[in-house]
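TASK: fixed-backbone design
INPUT:
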């Protein structure tokens, strides 16, 4: 959940990278005519079910797995098993009331069969991930000729910005349709919220499926070993909080906090995408920094207001697993503690990141005192120039801004 800094880099190409290209080490689409003349395309396909075969064809393999469940719906023998994976389970029908005399209400609660539904939509998330990567992000990468560092960060921001935007729009639609904005007391009133509408339950199933799909994507995307711990931390935090809100019947509060958090994260990742296209773009990060702090503050206010005041004053405060009532003091303390610790962790990461950026920026802006080289006659001065003694300041001065930008990323 912690946000990373914008990546830097780009510019001129070094001699070593040009030599790597000439040996065929650059990704497809980055080489010129000379490179294509030297590199020979390998016509050998990797062995079936080998490591490279799975990486290259994982989207097709997962598509076949998803198709098995869909084809199972066509036959009576397998339909009962397939429908558990494809459709939402545990639905109940409430009879029409005087306020809703025209139609009955169809609501859902959760159960163990939801794991099968999460698994199926995890396969769908892997397929969508591969489609966005192949038909959008890879084409942009070929045109922009990003470095390896920018390439991985661009893919990460591209995937997450699409997911955050879709989730924000979907979550906002649910908030408006169920009158969360006009009546904030819905967050704690009539707890436990063990019955959900179709949109609410499908939203949570999709959220869990997406973050579960992030685990195999670490393998499919060949994530570096040093980046895996960071990825596991924020994936685990998302799953812990989403599953906690879902299982403790705090889905109303969880939806509001997710939409708020996703909006701030979307702004960061879309700003990083613009930064990769033009390194002079910095306004988005300034706006994100302000909204990030406000987002953490609003998250704490809503959590304390709902759990600390709303649920604490409810009449029914007995632990009851049959009705899904978890409104007891121990659970409320655990919920508030987990939210506060997570927000404090995110703020700590954010403050360290901003301090590092300001420190590097001030160091870069500080005037450097240049000493005039002592010109002496003889072989020693000539030798010093050839070895790069006089060229050290110029070389570092040209490379340091780019290096600092990459470090800040």
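OUTPUT:
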């Amino acid at each position: 959940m912690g946000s990373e800094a914008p990546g830097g880099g780009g510019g001129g190409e070094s001699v070593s990278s040009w030599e790597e290209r000439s040996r065929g080490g650059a990704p497809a689409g980055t080489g010129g005519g000379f490179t294509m003349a030297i590199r020979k395309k390998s016509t050998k396909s990797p062995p079936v079910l080998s490591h490279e075969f799975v990486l290259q064809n994982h989207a097709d393999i997962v598509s076949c797995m998803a198709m098995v469940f869909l084809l199972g719906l066509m036959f009576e023998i397998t339909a009962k098993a397939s429908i558990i994976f494809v459709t939402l389970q545990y639905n109940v029908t409430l009879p029409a009331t005087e306020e809703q005399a025209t139609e009955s209400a169809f609501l859902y609660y959760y159960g163990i069969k939801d794991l099968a539904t999460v698994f199926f939509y995890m396969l769908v998330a892997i397929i969508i991930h591969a489609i966005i990567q192949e038909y959008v992000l890879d084409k942009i990468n070929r045109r922009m000729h990003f470095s390896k560092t920018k390439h991985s960060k661009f893919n990460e921001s591209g995937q997450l910005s699409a997911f955050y935007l879709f989730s924000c729009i979907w979550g906002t639609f649910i908030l408006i349709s169920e009158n969360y904005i006009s009546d904030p007391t819905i967050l704690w009133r009539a707890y436990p919220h063990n019955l959900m509408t179709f949109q609410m339950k499908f939203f949570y199933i999709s959220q869990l499926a997406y973050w579960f799909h992030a685990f195999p994507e670490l393998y499919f995307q060949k994530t570096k070993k040093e980046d895996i711990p960071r990825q596991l931390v924020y994936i685990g935090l998302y799953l812990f909080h989403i599953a906690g809100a879902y299982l403790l019947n705090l889905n109303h509060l969880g939806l509001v906090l997710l939409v708020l958090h996703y909006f701030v994260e979307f702004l960061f990742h879309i700003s990083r995408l613009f930064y990769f296209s033009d390194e002079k773009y910095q306004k988005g990060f300034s706006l994100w920094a302000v909204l990030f702090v406000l987002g953490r503050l609003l998250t704490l206010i809503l959590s304390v207001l709902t759990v600390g005041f709303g649920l604490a004053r409810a009449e029914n405060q007995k632990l009851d697993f049959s009705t899904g009532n978890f409104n007891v003091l121990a659970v409320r303390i655990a919920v508030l503690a987990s939210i506060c610790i997570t927000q404090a962790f995110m703020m700590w990461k954010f403050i360290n990141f901003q301090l590092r950026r300001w420190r590097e920026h001030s160091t870069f802006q500080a005037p450097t005192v240049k000493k005039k080289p002592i010109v002496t006659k003889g072989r020693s001065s000539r030798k010093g120039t050839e070895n790069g003694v006089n060229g050290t300041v110029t070389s570092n001065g040209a490379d340091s801004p780019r290096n600092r930008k990459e470090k800040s990323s």
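COMMENT: The first helix runs from residue 15 to 22.
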